[in-house]
Design a protein that fits this description.
The chain starts with 7 loop residues before the first strand and ends in an 18-residue tail after the last strand. The chain has helices at 67-76, 143-154, 162-171; strands at 8-11, 16-21, 30-33, 45-47, 58-60, 85-90, 101-104, 107-113, 121-126, 131-136, 182-183, 186-187. It is of the alpha+beta class. The protein has one domain (15-172). It has 3 helices and 12 strands. The protein is globular.
């Protein structure tokens, strides 16, 4: 009996205990600090099964427009199987003005942007030179909209840009993320369901 509450594990990088949150099916286990800012949620990140194959490698739902705070949280708790983030290129409309270097647990991460970039994607470069294209979900999305966007960007075979995914998510009324939105006769929240229609190329005839 260690006295450690259920769900807590030691974080060997920082010496702190963290709460482990695992999202369903295609998601990756992620962690969040228990000693961070008050009222912050666990890191909301969902990555696909295979990197570099689809239009988007996953999605991240930050809790504010403050890139310094949000990127540090992402980098410090980024799933180890996807590498260590060393640089980030962001889409300016998603964030308030940000510094060029952001302090993280392991040092600093360089950040940059293109002035006219409105893709709503953050490019994460890892230490092995892999570049991950991650959709940025607006902090103001409802829980259901955010859950839809996270899942859509991690769905295998996705082909649509992040801006189109976000537009389609906001056009639909809120749904129950437990599995009630039907698409072409099947719920795309099911483990083995086909990708929703907006993730595939429509056929004529």
């Amino acid at each position: 009996m260690t006295g450690r509450p259920e769900g807590l594990q030691p974080d060997t990088r920082t010496g702190r205990e963290v709460a482990v949150m695992t999202t369903p099916s295609t998601s990756t286990p992620v962690t969040t600090s228990l000693t961070g800012a008050p009222h912050r949620r666990p890191l909301r990140l969902r990555m696909g099964r295979t990197m570099g194959v689809d239009q988007l490698d996953g999605a991240w739902w930050p809790q504010s427009r403050d890139l310094a705070i949000e990127l540090a949280d992402l980098v410090d708790h980024f799933p180890a199987e996807h590498g260590r983030v060393v640089r980030a290129l962001f889409s300016p409309p998603d964030w308030d003005p940000a510094p060029r270097r952001i302090p993280v647990a392991t040092g600093y991460v360089k950040v940059g942007s293109f002035p006219r970039d409105d893709t709503h994607v953050i490019e994460l470069k890892t230490s092995d030179r892999t570049v991950l294209h991650v959709l940025v979900v607006p902090p103001g999305f409802t829980d259901d909209q955010g859950a839809e966007a996270l899942l859509a960007a991690a769905t295998p075979g996705n082909t649509h840009p992040a801006s189109e995914v976000l537009e389609l998510v906001t056009e639909h009324p809120d749904v129950d993320p437990a599995g009630h939105w039907k698409d072409d006769g099947g719920s795309w929240w099911d483990v083995d369901a086909p990708a929703p229609s907006f993730r595939t190329t429509p056929t004529s005839g």
